[in-house]
């Protein structure tokens, strides 16, 4: 590479020509930018800026790894070892770069990172429904309580239990019972928008967390989910659809409780009150009567 801010190629050996898919005549005298160095990496890093910085400050780039591109458009990763060549006055004349193809290693590292990320996600998700599991519920609720206390905001939790679901399992079998649970989870998920989220709590029970939503809003959301569950035909793909109903208990922070255990207990007690009063209804913690349809 001749003088600063000029990224022209002055030589590329036979292996490099074969690797990148260009002849010497097609490379020599041309800038690496837009030829074997794309404007940006897949990650978004500005390689144009990086090359110009390398020419200004080669001492910063004695070794660097960046994404390159072959003639056929295939993106590859190269680890470069760069040796600045200077004249008698110490001015940069050219940079001698030798590269090692590290594409496979880079892809393996990326795959490992994705695998680790997926593993962490799976550790917090329920295998059957894809909803969050109870481990996530306890961790996230602790954080939500702390944030709500600091901000002076409310949030609510809904306890949801499918009514007489054992009858479905007894008449249609455990496999269809699991399929129905998956479909109900999808119904609940379809009723929620961030930052709300749902948990597969236990068997045919679910918990819905509604950050920033006070009691009245939570009751309205419970009505919406209840209506959607009631109108859905579950296991329709088997040719023998079933209809389901659900009971809801509502608990709100800080009105009903200020700590995790007490809040969950209040929601569970409200749910039990619905069950005791005939099921297929909604009761908010502390209320004696169902919240209505």
Query: Could you tell me the mean pLDDT?
Result: 91
User: In percent, how helical is the residue content?
Assistant: 40-55%
Going across the major beta sheet, what is the strand order? 5-6-4-7-8
The CATH architecture of the largest domain can be named as: 2-Layer Sandwich
Order of SSEs: HHHEEEHHEHEEHEHE
Give the CATH level 1 class of the largest domain: Alpha Beta
Shape: elongated
Question: How far is the first residue's CA from the last residue's CA?
Answer: 76 Å
- What is the count of DSSP helices, taking H or I runs of 4+ residues? 8
CATH superfamily of the largest domain: Reverse transcriptase/Diguanylate cyclase domain
Number of strand elements: 8
The largest pleated sheet is described as:
5 strands, mixed
Textual characterization of the structure:
The chain is an alpha+beta fold and 293 residues long. The protein folds into 2 domains: 14-108, PAS domain (Beta-Lactamase); 123-284, Reverse transcriptase/Diguanylate cyclase domain (Alpha-Beta Plaits, 2-Layer Sandwich), CATH 3.30.70.270. The chain has 8 helices and 8 strands; from the N terminus they run αααβββααβαββαβαβ. The strands form 2 sheets. The chain has a 5-stranded mixed β-sheet with strand order 5-6-4-7-8, with helices on both faces. The longest helix is centred in the middle third of the chain and has 26 residues, at 165-190. It starts with 13 loop residues before the first helix and ends in a 9-residue tail after the last strand.
